[in-house]
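Problem: given the chain below (271 residues), write out its structure.
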Amino acid sequence: MTQVQLDESVEYLKRRGFDTPEIGIVLGTGLGQLVDDIEDSIEAHYNHIPHFPLATVEFHSGKLIYGTIAGKKAVVMQGRFHLYEGYDFLDITYPIRVMHQLGIQKLFVSNAAGAINLNFKKGDIMLIEDHINLQGGSPLAFRNVSEFGNRFVDMSEPYDLDMRQKIEAIAEKEGISLQKGVYASVVGPQLETKAEYRMLKTLGADAVGMSTVPEVIVANHLRLPIMAVSVLTDECDPDNLEPVNIEEILAIANKTEPKMIQLFKELIKQL
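Solution.
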């Protein structure tokens, strides 16, 4: 990755009309309905943006969408990138750096995840307070990283405390149940074994997924405040484990998403 590549990506998007967005949003698996709330939208497909990777997961769209949400300019990433698709950490996080150079001041991230904490249930939303990186690498482990920020990034509070407090207050006011916990990020694409679920619980994870942590690390590298939520789509009870049903996971994400959208829109109004 070079600054020239980032400049070329940003210049293309600015020519398309992506003008100084305030908010960046990354939508996870089964969580694409938010785009219906974007006013005066402009789209840019990943395969048209210079140096962008391409989304390969069949239920992920692959485009950036710019427009107005809750009165603020936003750029929404509909379709993200994963290690399990064969991408590396620089590919996965390249769009975060592009959105930052476009001007975003806050980043929202969503994902679909499995509930390790058995007090949490399918359809719950979990505000991520901390994470465990089990993906075996870092998006900052490249030779010229110091050209883009400090090589050694503090991660003592990776998720912005102010936005977390605001969204908790919004959830309480709106009567939306909001869990809080630790997200573990693994490589995938296979789901976990019973022994792996037990290990994750022992490590202190409340939910597990295959994304988000690389983007969060880069956001912290860029000193970009971030807020992230998981929509919990399955319950990972090793003593009562059933075969995974991807269709059911997508259906639960789809059903729960309106609550997540409500939280996001109310938070955007307060920023």
